[in-house]
Amino acid sequence: MTTLAPETMALDEMAKVFQGDHFAFDVAGCRLLEARRGYAVCEMELRDDVHYNAMHNVMGGAIFTLADYALAVACNVGEEPTVSVSNMIEYFSSCKGTKLIATAKVDKSGRSLGFYTVDVTDDTGRFIARMVATCKR
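Below the sequence we write its predicted structure tokens.
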């Protein structure tokens, strides 16, 4: 099996692999906190000059970017190279904190498809959004 990030890889090495997601890492500032097969936790420190819209709410695209980054990690650790083919996100609350945290979990991992849920909260514990995704291996 060819994998992007083997399950046995140390977290700091996994983080280096996923730094290749230049938009999420370099522009949005997403960071990897935890990773294992079918599971990932990532965070994004919010910056006034990058993440907020004209109404001073965190942009939906910023929230989606973090959720997508966590999804990429969760579906590629210990798996064949995997890409998302369908995503749906629902936004529940505006952010009140200074960072967002995305937790991605596998719902079902099949031979050619994977199904994932990503919950996004802020650092106050407020539930911000949920993404569900179908991924192709």
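The chain has a mean pLDDT of 96.
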